[in-house]
Amino acid sequence: MSEGQEVTAEEQQPLVVQKVQEQYPDAILDVSDARGELTITVRKEGIYELMAFLKSDSELAYNFLADVTAVDYSLMEDVLMKHDYARFTVVYHLLSTERKERLRVKVPVHEKELSIPSMASIWKVANWLERETYDMFGITFDAHPDLRRILMPDDYEGYPLRKDYPLRGRGERETFNFEEQNV
Amino acid sequence: MGLESQLGDNIFTTTIDKFVNWGRKNSLWPMPFGTACCAIEMMATLASKFDLSRFGAEAIRFSPRQSDLLIVSGRISIKMMPVLKKIYDQMPDPKWVISMGACASTGGVFDTYTLVQGVDGFIPVDIYLPGCPPRPEDLIDAVIQIQHIVEQESVSPKRQSGAIAS
Questions:
Q1: Tally of domains in chain A
Q2: CATH of the domain at A35
């Protein structure tokens, strides 16, 4: 996957990168710009405070959380090496409706501690988006108000968007109980 | 010619089956079950350009209890299948089913962990309509095929096609 050109130190860093580095000097692991789409990769530690800062800071004002999802990089050795062999990456897409600026925030998450703070108390929309990410990848969101499956049936087992999950499933199509569902 | 010659020009005679089927086939009330792009083609079929009312089937009811033709247009996930089954069960007899498009009929390209591979495993299907999605003309053709099926029915339980075969 092409991450785009690395932003070199000589160039003027975008405002958001400057402000985050000022506020949280250790947080940013990587900054990349793919055709004007800015992506910052940050540490999981302190992510809640960082995201709250991105929204509350009057100059940044990322007031809209457009998407929360995740990526399973287990088959991509080059990305794994960059991320200290963290299998999953949680991805947040932010938009500032005032500045008309978008930002992608990536957070590598190790499989052995597969949880990340919930952003539902910062952006309410995170509630359902995080439930979808939990449903598809099995990443748990700490302090989430209602962490249940959202797309798959409640009694479904497994996380279908993980790369080791077979496309045709593990026989769910045959074993699913079509009679005793609350419809 | 028998009775008709006595009745004059204003009165026709026919059989009760033909009379009822003539009414039924020309006033099908579809229950749309649109879950994907096939539903867009179904909407086009109902709209003015293709105008399904030319075939008497424009009275779309979003209540299964007022419908006699179920049009399954789109992919059905395992979680949605109990809903579709319940809607089919709620429709009063006699009722017919069109499985519109590749996904409803076979799962289509979505041979995945969550998709029902053909609704005919759960509800009886009268017409399978191929296409991805089928054009409105194809759906009109399917409705005409349903009309031909309706013509074969009988109001008498003894003369139902199934009863004769067994």
A1: 1
A2: 3.30.460.80
**Residue at A177 is within a domain:** no
User: For A50-100, how does the pLDDT look when each residue is reduced to its tens digit (9 = 90+)?
Assistant: 999 999 988 889 999 999 999 999 998 888 888 888 899 999 999 999 999
CATH 3.40.50.12280 assigned to domain B29-154? The reply is: yes
Domain boundaries, chain B: 29-154
pLDDT in single tens digits along all 183 residues of chain A: 445 555 555 567 888 898 888 888 888 888 998 888 999 999 999 899 999 999 998 888 999 999 999 999 999 888 888 888 889 999 999 999 999 999 999 999 998 889 999 999 999 999 999 999 999 999 999 999 999 999 988 888 889 999 999 998 888 888 887 776 655
Q: Please give the mean pLDDT across all residues of chain A.
A: 87
Q: Is A87 helix (H, G, I), strand (E, B) or coil?
A: coil
Q: Which domain holds residue A133?
A: 5-172
In Å, how far are B18, B48, B71, B128 from B28, measured between CA atoms?
A: 16, 18, 11, 18
- In-domain check, residue A50: yes
- A93 is written with which tokens? 């897409």
Distance CA B4, CA A118 (A): 81
- Residue A165 and residue B113: Cβ atoms within 8 Å? yes
CB atoms B82 and A167 under 8 Å: no
Name the β-bridge partners of B67.
Answer: none
Which chain A positions have a beta carbon within 8 Å of B112's beta carbon? 167-169
Residue A183 falls inside a structural domain: no
Secondary structure of A24-66 in the HEC alphabet? CCCCEEEEEEECCEEEEEECCCCHHHHHHHHHHCCCCCCCEEE
CA dihedral A172, A167, A129, A70 (to 10 degrees): 140
**Can you tell me the ipTM of this complex?**
0.74
- Pick from A160, A178, A181: which is nearest to B113 by CB? A160
In a domain, A181, yes or no: no
Closest partner residue to A178 among B112, B114, B122, by Cβ? B122
- Nearest CB to B78 within list A166, A170, A176: A176
- Provide the sign of the torsion angle of the four alpha carbons A18, A21, A22, A24, taken in this order: positive
For residue B95, the one-letter residue type is K
